[in-house]
């Protein structure tokens, strides 16, 4: 087998460098906070809770998360209102906080999903594009922070070549159903400010 010469190694190194730069540009498209439409009290609470939730993909470091909350979806028809956490198919999805499984659901857009309500009932945590639920997971079941509840996949309208967890948080009014609420940017709740 012929080994690459000095020129061959330089070409390989250049190709790897260009690939890394391209991926970095693609992944970090819009680092943004949700600017308008939030009242001061809600912003204060989000700031106080910064880093309060567990990152929902096992072993994922905070530095790997990207704030995609305000990115447009459906050709600009709507905001993302969530973050996508890129991970290998089958990676463990963990409960971000103590709570109760409100709804196990499947839809065309989100695929296999979980709606988890916080213990105080004020938040819904939404996990989408799942590959599978954890064995025995059921609606009404209490879950603990860090408990394995599912695995990462690409169900629904997710790109088959890019498995990820679509994770959203919604503030809920008293008595509001699992599919209601107001979107809250999960990024600052998962990552402490630097």
Structure write-up:
This protein is of the alpha+beta class and 194 residues long. The protein has one domain: Glucose Permease (Domain IIA). It has 3 helices and 11 strands, in the order ααβββββββββββα. Strands 3, 4, 5, 6, 7, 8, 9, 10 and 11 form a 9-stranded antiparallel sheet that branches. The longest helix has 22 residues, at 6-27. The protein is elongated. Keywords: Hydrolase, Metal-binding, Metalloprotease, Protease, Zinc. InterPro entries: Cell_wall_metabolism_enzyme, Dup_hybrid_motif, M23ase_b-sheet_dom. Its cofactor is Zn(2+).
Characteristics:
Glucose Permease (Domain IIA); 194 residues; two-stranded antiparallel ribbon; elongated; 9-stranded antiparallel β-sheet; 29% strand; alpha+beta; M23ase_b-sheet_dom; 3 helices
Secondary structure elements and their pairing?
Elements: H1 6-27, H2 40-48, E1 72-73, E2 78-79, E3 83-86, E4 92-94, E5 99-107, E6 111-118, E7 123-133, E8 142-143, E9 148-152, E10 164-171, E11 182-184, H3 187-190
Antiparallel strand pairs: 1-2, 3-10, 4-9, 5-6, 5-8, 6-7, 7-9, 7-10, 10-11
Quote the average pLDDT. 79
Whole-angstrom Rg: 19 Å
Tally the structural domains. Answer: 1
The helix-strand sequence is HHEEEEEEEEEEEH
In whole angstroms, the N-to-C terminal distance is 50 Å
Portion in helices:
10-25%
Class derived from helix and strand content: alpha+beta
Q: Sheet with the most strands?
A: 9 strands, antiparallel
Low-confidence stretches: 26-50
Instruction: Tell me the strand percentage band.
Output: 25-35%
């Amino acid at each position: 087998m012929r080994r690459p010469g000095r020129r061959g190694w330089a070409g390989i190194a250049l190709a790897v460098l260009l690939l890394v730069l391209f991926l970095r540009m693609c992944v970090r498209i819009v680092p943004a906070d949700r600017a308008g439409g939030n009242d001061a009290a809600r912003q204060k609470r989000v700031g106080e809770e910064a880093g309060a939730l567990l990152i929902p993909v096992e072993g994922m470091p905070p530095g790997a998360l990207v704030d995609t909350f305000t990115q447009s979806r459906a050709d600009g028809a709507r905001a993302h209102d969530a973050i996508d956490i890129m991970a290998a198919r089958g990676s463990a999805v963990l409960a971000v906080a103590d709570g109760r499984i409100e709804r196990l659901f499947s839809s065309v857009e989100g695929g296999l999903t979980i709606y988890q309500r916080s213990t105080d009932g004020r938040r819904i945590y939404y996990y989408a594009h799942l590959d599978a639920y954890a064995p025995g997971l059921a609606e009404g079941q209490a879950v603990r922070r860090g408990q394995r509840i599912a695995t990462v996949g690409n169900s629904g309208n997710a790109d088959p070549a890019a498995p990820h967890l679509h994770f959203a948080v919604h503030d809920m009014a008293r008595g509001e159903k699992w599919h209601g609420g107001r979107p809250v940017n999960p990024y600052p709740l998962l990552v402490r400010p630097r």
